[in-house]
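Please decode residue identities from the backbone states below.
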């Protein structure tokens, strides 16, 4: 089965959580600031996932010929 969820790299999303750090360390936690930080986090997750997909498309030919990457379970790189 093709794993489309892998394309957006959910394992990398934790790094985007650092967008929330200023909210926590500023000491001014409010509902408005929390919503704005959450919107920033979602924007970072979406933009980084889009970049990962574009990168996969751009590197498609190289990844298909790579000895290890051609066996990844992704829609474009998988040789099966």
């Amino acid at each position: 089965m093709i794993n489309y969820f892998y394309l957006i790299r959910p394992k990398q999303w934790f790094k985007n959580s650092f967008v929330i750090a200023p909210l926590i360390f500023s000491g001014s936690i409010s509902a408005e600031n929390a919503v704005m930080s959450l919107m920033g986090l979602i924007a970072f997750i979406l933009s980084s996932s889009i970049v990962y997909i574009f990168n996969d498309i751009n590197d498609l030919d190289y990844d298909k010929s790579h000895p290890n990457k051609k066996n990844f379970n992704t829609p474009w790189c998988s040789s099966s």
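Observation: The chain has a mean pLDDT of 81.
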